[in-house]
């Protein structure tokens, strides 16, 4: 009887051991799958953001970037493959990995260096800003990266906007480090996409249904939209009282339609305030708190800056180009609808500036039909509450438990970032953070990174060959700087900082 019980126990223990081993193997396979999926996510996000920057470069600075160049760069990005960077950087990989890791963990130094670079008129400042977001902070996919970037933005408010003679003009120009980083951050923030979709999808779809006419409110521009024959048919003889009366009637009708449309947008804005992103709310409240302490700035001007940040830099771009923000995907936007969306965006911005001298006098009649506090009430909700020093944790953290151990950066971006920091160090604009930057740069090799000093890299953003002039049999002979990108990995859990570097080749060969 005892032997039977021992035999049964041994059998059960063996079965349990097999079960435990099987579960361990399953968990290991699942962990490996998670890591592979996360790696794929990081790489896809890197490529997608580079494509978005490439598109913006074509749209905004089309004079400097030809369609052929941007199409070529888009094709290069599509074919990107990622290869270990130590094959290019060799033993220097560890030094550069440590440099990037410690720079990433010092948001104050990044902010002060960017501001110093702008004051020194460094020509690569904008590309370094893109590198900080896309590479150093990995497009803010991870919670830790988002927290670091929010701190960078807070320090930029203190070092850049607070110290500016005209911070509102600097902000609205959209070319300062704070504006660029805020745009990159808000465009990729998941909670921001949810808010914009919830707020704008329904009113935009209603506008698309009712896009029969241009809602023009300027009488002169309204007349120009019609041929002489159409003008006579619609308004009568030009110059007559009847002509002016009919034109004014159409202007009044368009104004009434625009007011109704804008009121719908404002209604949905108020209705969805509850899901406004906590990260953006924290940034706006930090701006209000910091700039309200500046003696030369009135409270009204600070509120106007916060409203500019919300509308001109976040909401209105999504109103005008909803397809770029994923708000609509199945409805085409024709020229009439695009014009009307621009009218709505313009009115929303004018409402934000109600009471300001900068208001457009041509829209005064339309603005008089709105509640003066409609946008102010939304701003009060956003900046209201206690302004805490610590950035908020994301309410939607789909990657909880994961930590990023790799940074994707092109070779030319790495060289540009290092040279930028060295230029800032040699200048006289960096003060309190000078020692911290000096300690970082002191550990870097003096020679250019790479196994071969003869291997010259060209910036990925300046292709030397365009598709129109590149023979088909030479398509794989582009300058290597356009084909390679470095990936620097650090192990933050190790007691001593280690690094591993990888390179990217679009053509796999």
TrEMBL record:
Ranges of biased composition (kind: Polar residues): 451-473
Superkingdom classification of source: Eukaryota
Ras-GAP domain location: 144-353
PROSITE patterns: RAS_GTPASE_ACTIV_2
InterPro entries, A to Z: RasGAP_dom, Rho_GTPase_activation_prot
Region ranges (Disordered): 448-475
Protein's name in the database: GTPase-activating protein and VPS9 domain-containing protein 1 isoform X6
Species name: Odocoileus virginianus
């Amino acid at each position: 009887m005892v032997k039977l019980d021992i035999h049964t126990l041994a059998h059960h223990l063996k079965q349990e051991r097999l079960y435990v081993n099987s579960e361990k193997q399953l968990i290991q396979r699942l962990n490996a799958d998670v890591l592979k999926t996360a790696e794929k996510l990081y790489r896809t996000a890197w490529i997608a953001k580079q494509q978005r920057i490439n598109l913006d470069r074509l749209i905004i600075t089309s004079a400097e970037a030809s369609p052929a160049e941007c199409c070529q760069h888009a094709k290069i990005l599509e074919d990107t493959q990622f290869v270990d960077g130590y094959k290019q950087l060799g033993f220097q990989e560890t030094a550069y990995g440590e440099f990037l890791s410690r720079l990433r963990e010092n948001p104050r130094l990044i902010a002060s260096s960017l501001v110093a670079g702008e004051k020194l008129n460094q020509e690569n400042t904008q590309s370094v800003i893109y590198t900080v977001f896309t590479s150093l902070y990995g497009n803010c996919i991870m919670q830790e990266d988002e927290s670091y970037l929010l701190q960078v933005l807070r320090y930029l408010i203190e070092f850049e906007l607070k110290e500016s003679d005209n911070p509102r003009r600097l902000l609205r120009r959209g070319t300062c480090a704070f504006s660029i980083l805020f745009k990159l951050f808000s465009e990729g923030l998941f909670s921001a996409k949810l808010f914009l979709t919830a707020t704008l999808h329904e009113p935009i779809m209603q506008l698309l249904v009712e896009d029969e006419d241009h809602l023009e409110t300027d009488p002169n521009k309204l007349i120009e939209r019609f041929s002489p024959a159409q003008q006579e048919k619609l308004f009568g003889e030009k110059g007559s009282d009847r002509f002016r009366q009919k034109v004014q009637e159409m202007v009044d009708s368009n104004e009434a339609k625009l007011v109704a449309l804008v009121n719908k947008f404002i209604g949905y804005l108020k209705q969805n305030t509850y899901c406004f992103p906590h990260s953006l709310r924290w940034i706006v409240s930090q701006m209000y708190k910091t700039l309200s302490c500046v003696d030369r700035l009135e409270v009204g001007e600070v509120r106007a800056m916060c409203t500019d940040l919300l509308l001109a830099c976040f909401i209105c771009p999504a109103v005008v180009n909803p397809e770029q923000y994923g708000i609509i995907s199945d409805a085409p936007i024709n020229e009439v609808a695009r014009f009307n969306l621009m009218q709505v965006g313009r009115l929303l911005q004018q409402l934000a500036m109600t009471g300001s001298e900068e208001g457009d006098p041509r829209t005064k009649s339309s603005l008089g039909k709105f509640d003066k506090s409609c946008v102010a009430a939304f701003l009060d909700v956003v900046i209201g509450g206690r302004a805490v020093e610590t950035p908020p944790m994301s309410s939607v953290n789909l990657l909880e438990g994961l930590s990023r151990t790799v940074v994707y950066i092109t070779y030319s971006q790495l060289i540009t970032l290092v040279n930028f920091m060295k230029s800032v160090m040699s200048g006289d604009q960096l003060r309190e953070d000078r020692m911290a930057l000096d300690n970082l740069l002191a550990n870097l090799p003096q020679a250019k990174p790479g196994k071969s000093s003869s291997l010259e890299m060209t910036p990925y953003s300046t292709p030397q060959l365009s598709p129109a002039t590149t023979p088909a049999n030479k398509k794989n002979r582009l300058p290597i700087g356009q084909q390679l990108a470095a990936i620097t990995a650090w192990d933050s859990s190790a007691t001593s900082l280690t690094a591993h570097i990888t390179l990217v080749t679009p053509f796999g060969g």
